[in-house]
Specification:
It is a single chain. By secondary structure, the chain is α+β, with helices and mostly antiparallel strands. Helix content is 24%, strand content 22%. The longest helix has 22 residues.
């Protein structure tokens, strides 16, 4: 007789615990099943300290925003709401089983590094997928 186990979702308490373990400088505020994480990231000594917020919303895409320093007008790889575009949905599917501390934080650190490089060189040195915003004829 085979027994199948359903993969347990990463509930808010697991998300908070993982963040406290890997990024203790982040504070968390739970609102229902959503969590707002806020804290500072030190990417490299020569770069400014970045204060970021991350909104965990279960199976919905986490919303990552830079609070400070203020980003330039229309930076690359951001959404209209000024949140960071960390991955393309064709290459990665977010769900509540994944951890902010494992997936999103590493990509946020990388985004900051590449943003700072872009400020100096005008080139986005990270891999990127261009989004087709034009409507296709059916």
């Amino acid at each position: 007789m085979a027994i199948f186990f359903k993969k347990k979702q990463a509930n808010p308490l697991i998300q908070i615990g993982a963040m406290r373990s890997k990024f203790p400088q982040f504070q968390s505020k739970q609102i229902g099943d959503n969590i707002i994480f806020k804290g500072d990231l030190f990417v490299k000594p020569e770069l400014p300290i970045y204060t970021i917020s991350i909104k965990y919303q279960g199976n919905k895409r986490p919303i990552v925003k830079i609070i400070s320093p203020k980003l330039v007008e229309n930076p690359p790889h951001t959404f209209a709401d000024k949140s960071l575009c960390l991955y393309h949905s064709k290459n990665f599917k977010w769900n509540a089983n994944k951890l902010i501390a494992k997936e999103i934080m590493q990509w946020t650190i990388a985004w900051i590094y590449f943003y700072e490089y872009w400020l100096q060189t005008g080139k986005w040195a990270a891999p990127e997928v261009f989004h087709n915003t034009e409507k296709k004829d059916e």
